[in-house]
TrEMBL record:
The keyword Metal-binding does not apply. GO terms for molecular function: oxidoreductase activity, acting on a sulfur group of donors, disulfide as acceptor. Belongs to the GILT family. Pfam families: GILT. This is Gamma-interferon-inducible lysosomal thiol reductase. It comes from Lactuca virosa. It comes from the Eukaryota. Residues 1-21 form the signal peptide. The keyword Calcium does not apply. Keywords: Glycoprotein, Signal.
Length: 266
């Protein structure tokens, strides 16, 4: 218990999202599936903006309990292209195609977002910290059997999944302009994707909002009144203003992974 309280304190201290509260850090209550906000995230594994979004913003949907009112789907394809022969070329090279396919295989192996998102987050965390060669540690860290993912990749089935993601991504209306491309109940967020929690909470039409929504919406309104240039929060994981310390973000993302491990062990 002491370790968890310490973890919550540090997350609140270093959080990009200022709406966290240690008194009710995660609130879980039953929600009808039909009432959930539909959230789709179109991304590619080696895009620095996507890495930053997953590691520092999308994670908050789960740690704040917002996933109770949201159905989150991930599409790891991004700005890749399929040529006339059916071969896929990725924006950041062959390695990106590998990681896109690995994450597609994980999503297929563990369809519940609460099962595959920790893995995707873990892989993206290693990529975010330029430690791509350590991604396989995620299986051990999360106590996951690597066989379903590796069999999927080696058999070529992962490539078939990517081809389907290509169809889904290229069918978007309005069309995707960049990645990450985040859509909430059919409406793209454009550059407001970093305010994903606020947008989910506003889109939710259920009977009662999670407490995290009330905190986040109030915090967002206060920031918009006192700091009209709030959207200048850097979207790139390396481009920090001189006054900011990137170490805070690195500590935070590492602790997030630790929390997933602790929750899985309970």
């Amino acid at each position: 218990m002491e370790a968890r309280l310490l973890f919550i304190f540090i997350i609140c201290l270093f959080s990009v999202n200022t709406c966290s509260s240690s008194s009710d850090f995660v609130e879980i209550f039953p929600i009808k599936e039909a009432e959930k906000v539909q959230v789709t995230v179109y991304y590619e594994s080696l895009c620095p903006y996507c890495e930053n979004f997953i590691v520092n913003y999308l994670i908050d949907v789960f740690t704040e309990g917002i996933d109770a009112i949201a159905d989150v789907k991930l599409f790891p394809y991004g700005n890749a292209k399929v040529n006339a022969n059916g071969n896929i070329t990725c924006q950041h090279g062959e390695q990106e195609c590998v990681f896109n396919t690995i994450e597609a295989c994980a999503i297929n192996a563990w369809p519940d977002v609460h099962d595959h998102f920790p893995f995707v987050f873990c892989v993206e965390r290693y990529l975010y910290h330029d430690k791509a060669d350590q991604w396989e540690s995620c299986f051990e860290e999360l106590s996951l059997d690597p066989k379903p993912v590796k069999d999927c990749y080696n058999s070529g089935y992962g490539n078939q999944l990517e081809l389907q993601y290509a169809v889904d991504t290229n069918s978007l209306q309005p069309p995707k302009k960049y990645v990450p491309w985040v859509v909430v109940d059919g409406q793209p967020l454009y550059d407001d994707y970093i305010y994903i929690i606020n947008n989910i909470c506003r889109a939710y039409k259920g009977p009662s909002l999670p407490k995290a929504c009330l905190r986040c919406l109030a915090s967002f309104e206060n920031r918009m009144i006192s700091a009209p240039h709030d959207k200048l929060i850097p979207l790139h994981p390396v481009t920090y203003p001189e006054s900011a310390n990137p170490l805070f973000s690195k500590i935070r993302s590492s602790l997030m992974s630790w929390m997933f491990n602790e929750n899985k062990a309970v």
